[in-house]
């Protein structure tokens, strides 16, 4: 069969974004030599750096390139420094690509210190609405409002993705809410999730208050399989889950819709370590494994996952995992572990 070539739009972004996406590109490029798919990369500008250079944090030509690519790899964007008058680039990217749910798996790895070794959870977070809908206004000189928009359509789409994930895993979905206070919005969200649950009789469905969910995620992560959450709750719970696991350096994610998808580490721009070449590249490399799976290259995704596992077992490791290696050294080790799999 002829080897496939995929075109990946890369939005390296700000802070450690360019460093970690470079590492993921090196790993993806190495697959061709091992007999796997080939990749071409179309680097595009987005984020605060793009805003400084061009006046737009998400230039229109970048969106056009992303839409024609096979997939999009994102580093991290410094959204905090972009003026409030500008559209928030990640939300704008999600709207442009019509991606509606972020999938964030967290598990423990042998050799990497984890707060709880028994965590193996995937958080499915609705990413288009909720408290991050971007509808904010001043209500007089001393008050301001943010609208928590919840729709049946977006809730149903996210729930659908959560149940599909659960079918591939341990077949349990926990929908999180704060219905005692948010009666209408979370009432609608849970109603949509319950409707979807009816179509998946083999999947256990439960609901939990978000605060109780956070507590149990820290104390007993093993009781969770897939957590379905609205935008802000999912944002916070996925950082909690990453901390309960091996930290942000090992937390990958994908953001999917019906047509397009993008892949990015859960972490942000990490300004405290940016430019030093010491960021853990594994979250982005694991995100590129999720991208491979999405492209139908499941065997190569598995090979990348196993190479990461081997490096975590045997080293080298970056500082966040107690090591002293650079991002480049860890990446070289992942590529070597991939090559080793091909020769045995
Ligand atoms: P942002 O505002 O872009 O979200 P942040 O610093 O608030 O940036 P993160 O970038 O997620 O949030 O970083 C949180 C902490 O985790 C920082 O101390 C950072 O150095 C650390 N961290 C994040 N990503 C990595 C990584 N890939 N490797 C090592 N440490 C990381």
Summary of the model, kept short:
The protein is built from 11 helices and 12 strands.
Name its key features.
binds adenosine-5'-triphosphate; single chain; 344 residues; two-stranded antiparallel sheet; 10-stranded mixed sheet; alpha/beta; 11 helices
Explain what this protein looks like in three dimensions.
The chain is an alpha/beta fold. 42% of the residues lie in helices and 21% in strands. It is built from eleven helices and twelve strands. The protein has helices at residues 17-33, 48-54, 60-68, 89-97, 152-168, 183-198, 210-219, 231-244, 282-294, 298-314, 327-343; strands at 5-13, 38-44, 71-76, 99-107, 120-126, 136-138, 144-146, 172-177, 204-209, 226-229, 252-257, 261-265. The strands form two sheets. The chain has a ten-stranded mixed beta sheet with strand order 2-1-3-12-11-4-5-10-8-9, sandwiched between helices. It has a two-stranded antiparallel ribbon with strand order 6-7. α6 (183-198) links the parallel β8 and β9 (204-209). α9 (282-294) packs antiparallel against α10 (298-314) and α10 crosses α11 (327-343). The longest helix is centred in the N-terminal third of the chain and has 17 residues, at 17-33. It is globular. The mean pLDDT is 94. Bound molecules: adenosine-5'-triphosphate. Adenosine-5'-triphosphate (ATP) binds next to loops.
């Amino acid at each position: 069969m002829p080897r496939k070539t995929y075109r990946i739009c890369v939005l390296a972004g700000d802070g450690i974004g360019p460093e970690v996406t470079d590492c993921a590109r090196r790993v993806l490029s190495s697959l061709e030599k091992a007999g796997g798919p080939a990749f071409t990369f179309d680097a595009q500008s987005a984020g605060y750096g793009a805003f400084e250079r061009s006046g737009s944090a998400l230039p229109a030509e970048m969106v056009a390139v992303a839409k024609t690519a096979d997939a999009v790899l994102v580093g991290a964007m410094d959204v905090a420094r972009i003026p409030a008058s500008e559209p928030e680039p990640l939300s704008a990217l999600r709207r442009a690509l019509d991606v509606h749910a972020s999938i964030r798996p967290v598990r423990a790895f042998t050799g990497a210190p984890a707060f709880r070794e028994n965590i193996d959870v995937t958080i499915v977070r609705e990413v288009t609405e909720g408290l991050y809908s971007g509808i904010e206004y001043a209500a007089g000189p001393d008050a301001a409002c943010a609208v928590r928009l919840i729709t049946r359509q977006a809730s149903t789409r996210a729930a659908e993705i959560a149940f599909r994930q659960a079918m591939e895993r341990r077949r349990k979905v926990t929908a999180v809410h704060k219905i005692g206070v948010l009666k209408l919005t979370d009432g609608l969200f849970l109603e949509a999730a319950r409707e979807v649950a009816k179509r998946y009789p083999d999947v256990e469905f439960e609901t939990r208050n978000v605060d109780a969910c956070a507590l149990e995620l820290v104390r007993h992560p093993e009781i969770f399989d897939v957590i379905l959450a609205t935008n802000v709750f999912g944002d916070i719970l996925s950082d909690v889950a990453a901390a309960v696991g091996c930290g942000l350096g090992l937390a990958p994610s994908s953001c999917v819709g019906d047509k397009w998808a993008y892949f990015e580490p859960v972490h942000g721009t990490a300004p405290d370590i940016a430019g030093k070449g010491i960021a853990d590249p594994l979250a982005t490399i694991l995100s590129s494994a999720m991208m491979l799976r999405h492209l139908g290259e499941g065997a190569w995704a598995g090979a990348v996952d196993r190479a990461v596992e081997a490096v975590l077992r045997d080293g080298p490791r970056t500082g966040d995992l107690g090591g002293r290696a650079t991002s480049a050294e860890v990446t070289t080790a992942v590529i070597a572990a991939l090559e080793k799999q091909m020769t045995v």
